[in-house]
Specification:
The chain has helices at residues 13-27, 97-104, 136-139, 147-152; strands spanning 3-4, 54-58, 63-67, 72-75, 82-83, 88-89, 143-144, 175-181, 188-193, 198-203, 209-210, 212-215. With 223 residues, it is of the alpha+beta class. The protein has one domain (3-215). The strands form three sheets. Strands 1, 2, 3, 4, 7 and 12 form a six-stranded mixed β-sheet that branches. Strands 10-9-8-11 form a four-stranded mixed β-sheet. A hairpin with a 4-residue loop joins strand 2 (54-58) and strand 3.
Length: 223
């Protein structure tokens, strides 16, 4: 899934983002979306994932997309794909939920152990020490998105794949993990199906990709 962006600590996030954005603007790295088939509605005011609602950029290795509506920055390629400056190449990496969570858990939660037990012959990797796992909502590290955030990428978009295909080129029409456990069922975690945007629970051992992203400063909102 997509591993998409820069996360900044709560105290310095706004200043660091603004400085970085200015640098990218002056360097010409952030560009308006090119003319392409629009797959997420006709009116940016009514279609939150219209290309006009994204600012596109890149660093040395990743294509990135800042979504003004949600205030999030996403990687443009699924994890395992590579960004060549204009599109995503290769095949998205597929792994069970726990394997992704080891490195991209958004933040620790107290009953994580309920989702970290062998199931149907699958033995997850060693569970992270919850006292040392960073809160990636604050640190700026790449993290898995929560299911509500991931599902927002499908709003107003055409099916197969149900996402803005210009902003996120070559996204597989597949299930993508979120960082959200599936409430009430410890053998499951929440996923989004990028064929039609269906949100569901999947067995933890299912091999699917994942999106990651970093939270952008709140552009003056309270909090």
């Amino acid at each position: 899934m997509l591993n998409l962006a820069l996360n900044l600590s709560k105290s310095s996030i706004r200043a660091r983002w603004l400085v970085g954005l200015l640098v990218l603007l002056f360097a010409g790295l952030f560009l308006p979306p090119a003319l392409a088939e629009e797959t997420c509605g006709d009116d940016p005011a009514d279609s939150p994932n219209h290309s006009a609602n994204y600012i596109l950029g890149s660093d040395a290795t990743d294509g990135m997309a800042m979504h003004w509506v949600s205030g999030l920055v996403w990687q443009r390629c699924a994890e395992g794909q590579t960004w060549d400056g204009s599109t995503c190449n290769g095949t998205a990496t597929e792994k069970p939920w726990n394997d992704w969570m080891v490195d991209y858990m958004p933040k620790p939660f107290a009953d994580l152990g309920n989702w970290w037990t062998p199931v149907f012959g699958y033995t997850p990797p060693a569970m992270p020490n919850l006292t040392t796992v960073p809160n990636r909502l604050l640190t700026g590290d790449w993290r898995m998105s929560y299911v509500e955030e991931l599902d927002q990428l499908t709003t107003s978009c055409a099916n197969s794949p149900k996402i803005n295909r210009h902003v996120f080129p070559n996204t597989p029409s597949s299930y993508f993990w979120s960082g959200s456990p599936y409430a009430g069922q410890s053998g499951f975690a929440s996923s989004v199906y990028f064929v039609d945007g269906f949100v569901n629970g999947h067995y933890l051992l299912s091999a699917t990709s994942h999106f990651g992203f970093a939270q952008q400063p709140d552009r003056g909102h309270a909090g």
